[in-house]
Amino acid sequence: MERKEADVTTAIAPQPAALTAGDRCDRCGAQAYLRVELTSGGELLFCAHHAREHGDKLRSIASHVHDETHKLEPTPTGARESD
Length: 83
Description:
By secondary structure, the chain is α+β, with helices and mostly antiparallel strands. It has one helix and three strands. The protein has a three-stranded antiparallel β-sheet with strand order 2-1-3, with helices on one face.
């Protein structure tokens, strides 16, 4: 007797694509570090400044927020520009 086994597949939710230097803030045109997928189906991109300014409102209308503001690190104290 031959035993048949069902094929099993696991669905994996797609990861949002990383933001690049080509992704620009919809508000001011600076490099975007936040992608907001809207519940209505669109998406908005924001620089860190505008993400902070409008963050609470954006999160209330978002179905998903992809935040890469962690890529922005403050300049270490004592760091100088090279001559």
